[in-house]
Amino acid sequence: MSKLFVCDHPLITNKISMLRNKNTGSKEFRELVDEIGMLVCYESTRDIELINKTIETPLCETEGNITAKKIAVVPVLRAGIGMTNGILKLIPNAKVGHIGVYRDPNTLEPHEYYCKLPKDISDRIVFLVDPMLATGGTACMAINFLKNRKVKNIKFLCLISTPEGFGKINKEHNDVNVFTAAHDSELNDRGYIVPGLGDAGDRLFGTK
Ligand code: URA
User: Fold this and answer.
1) Ligand 1 residue neighbourhood (C-beta within 6 Å)
2) What is the pLDDT of residues 67-113, one digit of tens each?
3) Which residue is closest in CA terms to ligand 1's atom 2?
4) 4-205 architecture in CATH?
5) Atom of ligand 1 nearest to the CA of 196
6) Which of 22, 74, 204, 206 is the most exposed place for a label (fewest CB within 10 A)?
7) How far is the CA of 119 from the centre of ligand 1 (A)?
């Protein structure tokens, strides 16, 4: 069964409120998405496996740790790009892949248009990132791409999720856990999250 982790630390919740505000301009919106992406990533890496490595302090030898597995960050184009740099600040050695999926505005069905992933993606823990987990259609399609390339360990990171989106991931990919900064109650008939924050891509890139 998938788990839903709502990262509701007060600092994150405060930043989410600023993000929701329609008067927040693109520059501040981008900075907030970057920061919240980093904080959600921090929470999502709690269970990352470590292996021991002997290190020398100025005083003596001691047991240190390094992460056991390599990581890849895979943003879903285009809004996922907004969260990527924040995550890379915490995991600078991660490789980055991209998956392009758009939602048909009439049917709300997801369609793939781009996929470029690191060659060794199947050996990596993959952080799939998209700010808005709305119907879950895009997320499930992106998870399918990754599983078709033999990825075994996937975490889905977002900023705002819905019961419908999480339910779809849980139904189709119950080995994937979801890490979000807020869990909203509703989707409207155009597939927008309510209260949400509007169109994350447009607000990030100033295209509306
Ligand atoms: N994508 C967005 O950018 N916003 C939503 O509310 C839903 C999907």
Assistant:
1) 79, 132, 134, 191-193, 196, 199-201
2) 888 999 999 999 999 999 999 999 999 999 999 988 787 887 888 89
3) 199
4) 3-Layer(aba) Sandwich (3.40)
5) 6
6) 22
7) 30
Q: Residue 134 Cα, ligand 1 centroid: separation in angstroms?
A: 6
HEC sequence for the chain: CCCEEECCCHHHHHHHHHHHCCCCCHHHHHHHHHHHHHHHHHHHCCCCCEEEEEEECCCCEEEEEEECCCEEEEEEECCCHHHHHHHHHHCCCCEECEEEEEECCCCCCEEEEEEECCCCHHHCEEEEECCEECCCHHHHHHHHHHHHCCCCEEEEECCEECHHHHHHHHHHCCCCEEEECEECCEECCCCCEECCCCCHHHHHHCCC
